[in-house]
Amino acid sequence: MVKDRYDIVVIGAGPAGSVAARYAAENGASVLMLERDREPGIPVRCAEGVSHNGIAPFIDIDKRWIASQIDIAKLTSPNGESAFMYNNGVGYVLERRIFDTALCELAAKHGARLITKADALDLIKENDKITGVKYRYMGETREVKCDIVIAADGTESRVGRWAGINTTVALRDIDTCVQYTLAGLDLKKEICEFYFGNEVSPGGYVWIFPKSDSTANVGIGIAGHLSHEKGPKEYLDKFVARRFPDATITYTMYGGVPTAATLKEIVKDNFMIVGDAARQVNPITGGGIVQGMIAGRIAGKVAAEAVKKGKFDAKFLKKYRKEWDKTLGNTQKVMHSMKEKFLFMTDERFNNLVGYCQKIPSDKFSLKALFTEAVKGDPKLMLDVAKSFVVSKIKLK
Amino acid sequence: MKIIYELCDICGTCVAVCPVDAITVSEFKVEIDNDICTDCLNCLKVCPAKAIEEGE
Questions:
Q1: Which of A7, A125, A148, A370 has its CA 20 to 30 A from that of A225?
Q2: What strand order describes the sheet that includes A91-94?
């Protein structure tokens, strides 16, 4: 039986939402998750790549939701030169549909409830205080009361706006993306590939994430302010026609990836926002699964503590902000300034960057090693990177 | 702004860049409220499916 009151209501059952629900429930709160779609994880809008180290703290690795294991990343510059990276640890290409459901099952195991096909319509406010959520379920409008709402409703987040948070992303801070799942390929499934350059993918990159030796997620993200004349689909079609002329498309998906810094406000009285909705995404890679889960864990724990202490004001919930900034938020700010530099990189500099990668022994590869090598050949790059740190006024750990 | 429903994939990218909260998205449909819309064209520019055009 679904009750009409919970301590916490989480809107959205993606990785950020379900992890928040799990940690809130595990720490003693009663939790309800509302998912708009008929099941968690669908429709998949994701390249599905994660690192082992990123997800292992949250869930036991299960081959049910792993399509392939990635050991090598291949970077290709505009002039066609490639560099291989071996040293970033094992990665996986997920089956998000199964993965997201598994995370919800874990939340359920810890006592959280989930309703699917439950479309949040608005926040309930009494004397300006958030006291619950109005949602639509099977043609019926329902209300559920709670002390804290956690918004985890993804890139398109509207819940944050209902709470009075400005969630609007600038055009330059969103990547507009298209992805095909291709079949009939001949690939090495342990190698993921990235293609850079202004001809291939202005302000972003093309990725190939193999799901098997013959299938892969092949997608593109380009910076929003550079996509008006020619959209991502035109760039991707050109790439696929050249690289995989005989492939069959089994799935086409569209989507947007925020490449901003975390929102200025992620808590209000009785309210928190996590994941893509809070723009907690790595602005350089566009990766948001692990970031969302880490934010969800912090938010869930703080929310449970709030319930125990009966303190639901923004002042108390700011603990989540503080902890997030310390864990990843500050780093994300630096990455965001660095991304600004990537937006203006010429193809020549991309060529140089891949050249520097080639000089680093593949088992010694790290971002630090790359910058050390890059700075030797391109002092201006050092200046750019230094500026990123100055602008952000913080140090990258 | 007008949505071309044959092309729209309901991905919600338009919602993220709308500065005035004129766009709503459900499981089945994206809608633009032209009474609120200020014709800034952000949504049209980022739509990965090219499913938005000018006009009401």
A1: A370
A2: A49-51, A91-94, A66-70
What 3-state class would DSSP assign to A125?
strand
For residue A124, the surrounding DSSP H or E stretch is: strand A118-126
Q: What is the pLDDT of residues A3-58, one digit of tens each?
A: 999 999 999 999 999 999 999 999 999 999 999 999 999 999 999 999 999 999 99
Sequence letter at residue A50: V
pLDDT of the residue at A14: 98
Cα gap A374→A395, rounded to integer Å: 19
Instruction: Provide ipTM, 2 decimals.
Output: 0.95
Query: What is the rounded CA–CA span in Å between residue A139 and residue A143?
Result: 13
Which tens digits make up the pLDDT trace of A138-165?
999 999 999 999 999 999 999 999 999 9
Give the DSSP letter string of A283-340. TTT---HHHHHHHHHHHHHHHHHHHHHT--SHHHHHHHHHHHIIIIIHHHHHHHHHHH
Distance from CA of B3 to the nearest CA of A (A): 15
Check CB contact under 8 Å for B16 and A232. Answer: no
Same fold, A8-47+96-169+260-329 and A68-92+171-258: no
pLDDT(A378) > 70: no
pLDDT digit string (tens) for A223-238?
999 987 899 999 999 9
Which residues, in sequence order, are bridge partners of residue A195?
A76, A206
Q: Which CATH number fits domain A8-47+96-169+260-329: 3.10.180.10, 3.50.50.60, 3.40.50.720, 2.30.29.30?
A: 3.50.50.60
User: Are the beta carbons of B13 and A168 separated by less than 8 Å?
Assistant: no
Domain ranges for chain B? 2-53
- Chain B residue with CA closest to A169: the answer is B17
Interchain contact, A255 vs B11, CB within 8 Å: yes
- Domain A68-92+171-258, what fold? D-Amino Acid Oxidase; Chain A, domain 2 (3.30.9)
Interface of B with A (CB under 8 A): 9, 11-19, 21, 24-27, 42, 45-50
Phi, psi of A67 (to 5 degrees): -80, -45
Query: Looking at chain A, which residue has its C-alpha nearest residue B30?
Result: A156
Q: Work out the average pLDDT over B8-36.
A: 94
- Beta bridge partners, A118, equal A137
CB contact under 8 A, B13 and A255: yes
- CA of B19: which chain A residue's CA is closest? A168
Q: Which amino acid, one-letter code, is at A369?
A: A
